[in-house]
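Bench log. Compound arrived from synthesis this morning; before running ITC I wanted a structural hypothesis for how pyridoxal-5'-phosphate sits in the protein. Inputs:
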Amino acid sequence: MPSSEKPRSLERGVVTSSFPSALPDPTGLLDLDTRHVWHPFTQARTAPEPQVIVRGEGPYLYAADGTRLLDMVSSWWVNLHGHAHPAIAGAIARQAQELEHVIFAGFTHAPAVTLAARLAAELPGRLSRIFYSDNGSTAVEAALKIALQAGFNRGETRTRILAFEGGYHGDTFGAMSAGATSGFYAPFQDKLFQVDFVPYPATWAGDPEVEAKEWAALSALDALLGDDVAAIVLEPLVQGSAGIRMARPAYLDEVVRRVRAAGGLVIFDEVMTGFGRTGRLWAARHLSEAPDLMCLSKGITGGFLPLGVTAATEELYRAFGGDSFAQAFAHGHSYTANPLSCAAALASLDLTLSPETAANWERIGAAHERALPELSAHPHLERVRRCGTILAAEIRGAGEYGGNVSLELRQFFAARGLLLRPLGNVVYLLPPYVVTDEQLGQAYAAFLDAAQTFGRPG
Ligand SMILES: Cc1ncc(COP(=O)(O)O)c(C=O)c1O
């Protein structure tokens, strides 16, 4: 039986009911984990044992068995400034001693108001209203509902939603509907609402067909547009879960203009691309056009606590004003605008807007750029691409997206001290901004080794 298929033992270790303190006992913990924990996006029957992580510092995660992992995927794209950053940890601790939470209907508080005002000052276009929720999926869910209800409140009959093929927007039903072609939702297909999908002209360094793909995608969009379109939702510049697929800003600008000319709203899902991943604060800052709604989460708290934001224009907000509650946005979550999350987000925003972080975006981008020629020249790599701090390439002949090779690749990288989580044969780096050039060098070298080991020439 290949080691990746080894069933996790139910028999190991002593089961204790308290969490291990100073010296964690990985064996006991894994036993409890096997009995009681249901991990996300994991086939427990075939997945290797999860690794017990006891500490994080900078770009490193420290495991109970004494090993150290360089977190090159920012722990599912949430971490920005390194693990356990003292400024964010301190802000949460201070806030916890003042006010941990309060119902956000009928009440407000300084962390939520300050964060809303500071985000509004940085957001593109006329986005000035902040609706809080808990995560990326709920941020998208709220955006879709706002787009639909705004039309409903105005007496319009616009109900159709458009999205890009391959796009991923989260795992709640609205987000799944908008991500129906991402390949994750077979058991739910007949429960998803109708969304029309526009081809996504993914591109890479030296792609000779990019313009032809963009024109074809634009004419497919034209064929879908009509006076019943409420909105398009899209991941600007980089589709994340679809396999780090990149599109050009000029093309996206044209999409925005055409949807808007047809009277539809534009929703940017910047859950992954936000807070500097693309080398600017927002992917939207690479475009001339701005969205009507924007979704943020993941990096918003620097990776410390869950928080979702749906930013809207004042014009959209006004569509919900009226004499009756029926026009209000009847949507909310128990932990809406949690003060601890908002305090973490404010501390993270200070770090994000610092000159040091901007310099790090430049530095990481420049390092990726220097690595591109060698990666592009490797006969086993194809479609090498970069956007800001994100670098990706496909290992030729190593199976398609969704194949089993990603698990083997994960183990290959782990053996070299790297946390990398390829999406099928797509290997990508999406590091915390504190990663050093030397650490990036280690990742590029492992990338080339993996290509050599798993790939074959075209
Ligand atoms: C672009 C995008 N939107 C939405 C989501 C969903 O976010 P969450 O996992 O916080 O629900 C993700 C998660 O990967 C994402 O990448």
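What the model suggests: The pocket of pyridoxal-5'-phosphate is lined by residues 135-137, 140, 168-170, 235, 240-241, 269, 271-272, 297 (CB under 6 Å). Confidence is low (pLDDT under 50) at residues 1-22.
ITC booked for Thursday regardless.
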